[in-house]
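Q: Focus on the shape:
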Amino acid sequence: MSRLLNHFALAPYLSIRFGTTWSATPLKSLKAYLSLFDMTMVELMVNGHNLESILRVADEKLLSRTIDLSTEQRAAVCNATEYYNGKVFEYPAVGEALSGYPALPDFEMLMAAASMLVDSLAEPCKRAE
């Protein structure tokens, strides 16, 4: 019984750690997409790790012609910004943990968006010079 309780006690921390990878994947995928438009590293760094801002720039470059993220997937990517920027996925904040991480993105949607970005952008990136 105690092993089961320990598992449930650790579950929130495991999902937070898990979120680091899934929020980094859209970031890297969107930056790879933007690099197809000859954006320099300096230009790509302007938005830092702000997933919402990077998604907006990708939309300006007609991302929807390559990939059709659902409204829920887009929201999950944008909602991950606050936690990803604040490194909450890496270093959980006690105050946030006590309040249950109220703005935490839906991990299923975040994973779906990350997978969709990687799958849809792999070929265009491979074909790039």
About this structure: Residues 2-127 form one domain.
